[in-house]
Amino acid sequence: MLANFFRDFLIRILILVVAVVVFQVYVADAQQEIEKSVVKIYTNQRRPDVFNPWSKMPANEISGTGVVITGNRILTNAHVVMYASQVYVQLYQSADRLPAKITGIAPGIDLALLEVDDGSFFSDHPPLPLSEIVPKTGQKVNAYGYPIGGTGISVTGGIISRIEFSPYYYNTAGLRIQVDAALNPGNSGGPAISENEIIGIVFSGIRQADNIGYIIPVEEINIFLKDMEDGRYDGKPMMFDQLQTLENDALREKLKLDKNQTGMMVTSPYGDGEEGYLKKWDIITKIGKEKIDNDGKIITKDGMRLHFAYLIQHMEKEGHISLDVLRDGKEIKIDMPLLREKNALVPELKDGYPSYFIYGPLVFSPATNDFLRYLQREWLGNLLRSSSPLITRLNDTVTEEQEQLIVISSRMFSHRITKGYGDPLAQVIKDLNGTQIRNIRHLVEVIQNSKEYIEINFEGNFVETMIFRKAEMEAATEDILTENGIRFQCSSDLMDMIKR
Question: How many domains are contained in the chain?
Answer without folding.
Answer: 5
